[in-house]
Amino acid sequence: MREFDADELRGLVASKAIGRRLPIFAEEFLLSGSSDAPLPDDVKVYCAYGKVLHIMLRRMPQHADTTVAQYRYVDESGHDLGKVTPARQVSPLVPVPTNLEEVVRVAELLSLAVPLPFVRVDLYARHEDVLFGELTVNPGGMQRFRQEHSSWMAAEWEQAEARLQTDLANGRPYAVVMGAHSTHHLPEG
Fold it and tell me: Does this model's pTM top 0.85?
């Protein structure tokens, strides 16, 4: 743990940015607020164009060490989905965010902003805040699920593609919709 002044941080970021697209910035260092978990839990919301498929909650007791990570899969209401993946250590002890309703609302809205049938919306739920991480269109790592869950997700993906094509035919832009804008082209709800 080392503190950087503004000039040192700029130099560090600039040295790491070589060969990468800019801008790169750090706005705030996130803490979990819990002695159980020094890092904030990841909230990765798998969405099919406006609909939550499932939410993967990940607790990382140690930075960058996925061998000790614990996972929990829940639906948009917070109901535990159990071990939907054979490849990960699933634990009912990873807590569901207290502001899950807001997490779901934000994820659904952000997934509609991208003209794709699938996107994973990576968030952090901290106290009453929902903090944006990134939009992931092609999640890496182990993405294998039980056959029935995988088949259900595939069917939802196809329905999302149909909703997206309908919206595009009705005037939705073919680009990512960003910033303060009219939402008349997005589906109601």
Answer: no
